[in-house]
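Example record for the data management plan.
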Amino acid sequence: MNQGYGKHRHGRLASTRTILAVLSCAAALTACAGSADPAARADAKPSAAPKPLTQAALAARALAPGAEVGPYRTGEYTVSGGPLSDAYTARPAVCQPLVSLRATRGGPAAQVHRRLTDPAHPQGADVAVQSRTYAHGSAAKVMDDLRAAGKRCAGGLTEVRGSATGTYTAVEGTSAPAGTGDEAQAFRLALRDGKGGTASYEYLTAVRYGPTVITFRAQSLDDKDLGGVPKEIVDAQTEKFSSLGQ
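Corresponding structural encoding:
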């Protein structure tokens, strides 16, 4: 065999092997960049927003009318007269979540209102407990809006309920119940009296479980500072809700 031809053939084979190796590597990289594995693609997709609870399921997870929680007795609010009603508005508008917790993408799919008071002290603590379940991932947005309102309305706000108005002179964050729900927030609102001074405090705690937000709003009818939403009420409601699942 011609020696020059052998060298030339050997060189062509080496070049062919090099090209095949490059093509093989390119194919491998393409496969890695856009995996043909359906399971891998499915894992990469964002999970769907949790579905809201039905009215019956939400009611089953709420404290039952007549239930006793420490010294407190559970009663009902009507929707029209319930706490954090959509009929209430706030000025400035950014403070609205502190008033009604409206969802930016529509109202709640279902809601349940409860009211707890101490029969032995009718002028004492008055606690409104509201459970609302939302579609389209709005529950998380409600909590985001509430968090933003707590910061931006630290200097106060005005709440309008028909012809009546209430002026809050300050809003401050307080300790939220740790390890409760997917997230939780808590605030203290200072309410001005008719003479321009701070007459009383209201406390707002919000806990989210998936598509559901449970709020607790507490005030003292004798204008005493409660120091927060009574812990036994928060514990009783959140324990009942979590025991039945989201």
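Summary line stored alongside the record: Helices lie at 3-33, 38-44, 55-61, 138-152, 231-243.
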